[in-house]
Amino acid sequence: MINVNLDVMMAKRKMSLGELSSRVDITAANLSILKNNKAKAVRLSTLNAICKALDCSVADILEYVDDEEIGQ
Amino acid sequence: MNKSNESFAINVSAVLTVIIFLALTMIAIVIPRATERYLAYKGMGTEHRTLIIILLYISDMIAYVADIALFKLLKDVKTGEVFSAKSVSKLTMLSACCFAEAVCYAALASFFIFSAAIAFAAIFMGAVLSVVRNVIAKAAEIKEENDGTI
Asked: Is it the case that residue A72 has pLDDT exceeding 60?
C-alpha cells in the first residue's frame, strides 16, 4: 500500500494544514483526507503543488509499503 | 436545462407518483366488484374468481412497492444523491417489481388474453430498468473514485 507522509513533511516544515491548504489551493478537508490515507487517487497537479509548497520530493510524501510486511 | 426546469420536472414526476398511489388505492377497492362484473360480461364462470382477485391484489401490492420506490428515488434526485448505492438498490427494486408483475399477468393470461401483452410489456420494462440500474451502478463507482481523488 501507499502511505502518505504529508503530516511528517508538514511537521518538518512547521506548516499547518490551513497554511498548506491556502498555498496549494486545495481545501483543508481534502488535504485531511489525503493526510489520513483515505484518498483513492491523487492528481499529479496536486502532488506538484504540495511538493512545491513543502519544498520536497514526491518520495518524501508517498511511501510504498508491502502489504505482507504490514501483516507481519 | 436550467435549475427551475429541472425542479419543475421533478415535481411533476412526484405528483404523478402520488396520483398513481391514489389510483392504486382506488383499484384495490374496486377489484372484487370489477372482477365479478367482467366475468359476468364475458360470460365466464366464477370458479376462478377468487384466484383472479388474489392475483390482481398481489399485482396491486407490487405496484404499491414500485410506486414508493419511485417516489423515494425522486427524493434522492431532488437532494442531488443520484449516483449512489441507494439509487442503485431502488432501481433494482423497480426492476424486480416489473418482473414480478410480469409473473402475475402471465398467470392471468389464461383467463384474460390481453394479460399476456401486459406481461410482455412488464418484462420489457424490467429489462430496461435492469440495464439502467447497471449504468447507474457503474456511474456510482466512477463518482466514488472521482470523489476520492485529491
From this structure: no
| Integer angstrom CA distances of residue B144 from B105, B137, B149 | 39, 11, 9
pLDDT in tens, A31-50: 999 999 999 899 999 999 99
Structural domain spans, chain A: 2-71
Cell numbers 420536472: residue? B9
Q: Grid cell 483515505 — which residue?
A: A38
Name the residue among B144, B145, B150 with its Cβ closest to that of A30.
Answer: B150
Please tell me the predicted confidence (pLDDT) of residue A67.
80
- For A6, A42, B29, B49, B142, the CA distances from A1, given in Å and listed in that order, are 15, 14, 61, 66, 21
Contacts of A41 in chain B (CB under 8 A): 145, 148-150
Span A2-71: which CATH code?
A: 1.10.260.40
Q: Which positions ≥6 away from A35 have C-beta within 8 Å?
A: A4, A6, A7, A10, A17
ipTM of the complex: 0.77
- Compare CB distances from A43 to B144, B145, B150 and report the shortest one's residue: B150
Note whether A39 contacts B150, CB cutoff 8 Å: yes
Domain segments of chain B as ranges: 3-147
